[in-house]
């Protein structure tokens, strides 16, 4: 007889959305995050400018349904944990006009930069979207999430708050 799991829905969601990895954790977790700098038509963003803060580097695209699904959660997290966590969105959109319309339409409240050549995504080994990397205050990569995440689930917020 199968026994029903008592995992809270938020934890189960977190586990299921964490993606598949070979081994016990993805490569580079526990290592210094790869420094990057991206300049688009609006500004320059570099990982180094956020040293001393917890950073979520989220790779996304306007045309990606799971990315759009995850967006409200990221925006709520950014507002909720302002000053403790910085969300940095790295868009792989090629169409700059579509990207800018999307930002305006959705009122994005976190740092975004467009990397149409996917140079940063390539550095991190990102092959699906959305993918998010959590980097601690010392610049060490602590987690990788593949797919949309409920960034306001109690377990996720507790994890980020402990960093």
Task: Compose a concise summary of this entry.
The chain has helices spanning 9-17, 65-80, 96-106, 119-124, 154-162; strands at residues 37-39, 44-46, 54-60, 85-91, 111-114, 131-135, 141-146.
Descriptive account of the structure:
There is one protein chain. The protein is an alpha/beta fold and 163 residues long. It has one domain: Glutaredoxin, CATH 3.40.30.10. It has five helices and seven strands; from the N terminus they run H-E-E-E-H-E-H-E-H-E-E-H. The strands form two sheets. A five-stranded mixed β-sheet has the order 5-4-3-6-7, covered by helices on one side. Strands 1-2 form a two-stranded antiparallel ribbon. Helix 2 (65-80) links the parallel strand 3 (54-60) and strand 4 (85-91). The radius of gyration is 16 Å and the shape is globular. The model is unreliable at 1-25 (pLDDT under 50).
Itemize the secondary structure elements and their pairings.
Blueprint: H1 9-17, E1 37-39, E2 44-46, E3 54-60, H2 65-80, E4 85-91, H3 96-106, E5 111-114, H4 119-124, E6 131-135, E7 141-146, H5 154-162
The structural domain count equals 1
Q: Name the beta content range.
A: 15-25%
**Fold-level CATH name:** Glutaredoxin
CATH H level, superfamily name: Glutaredoxin
Q: Helical amount among residues, as a percent range?
A: 25-40%
Spatial order of the strands forming the largest sheet? 5-4-3-6-7
Descriptive terms for the model:
five-stranded mixed β-sheet, 163 residues, Glutaredoxin, two-stranded antiparallel sheet
């Amino acid at each position: 007889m199968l026994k029903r799991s008592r995992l809270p829905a938020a934890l189960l969601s977190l586990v299921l959305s964490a993606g598949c990895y070979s081994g016990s954790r993805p490569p580079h977790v526990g290592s210094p995050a790869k420094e990057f700098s991206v300049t688009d038509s609006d500004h320059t963003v570099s990982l180094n400018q956020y040293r001393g803060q917890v950073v979520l580097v989220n790779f996304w695209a306007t045309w990606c349904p799971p990315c759009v699904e995850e967006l409200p959660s990221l925006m709520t997290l950014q507002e909720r944990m302002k000053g403790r966590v910085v969300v940095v969105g790295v868009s792989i959109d090629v169409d700059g006009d579509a990207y800018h319309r999307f930002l305006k339409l959705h009122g994005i409240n976190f740092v975004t930069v467009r990397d149409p050549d996917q140079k940063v995504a390539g550095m991190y080994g990102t092959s699906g979207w959305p993918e998010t990397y959590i980097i601690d205050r010392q610049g060490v990569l602590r987690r990788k999430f593949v797919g949309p995440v409920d960034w306001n689930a109690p377990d996720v917020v507790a994890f980020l708050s402990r960093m």
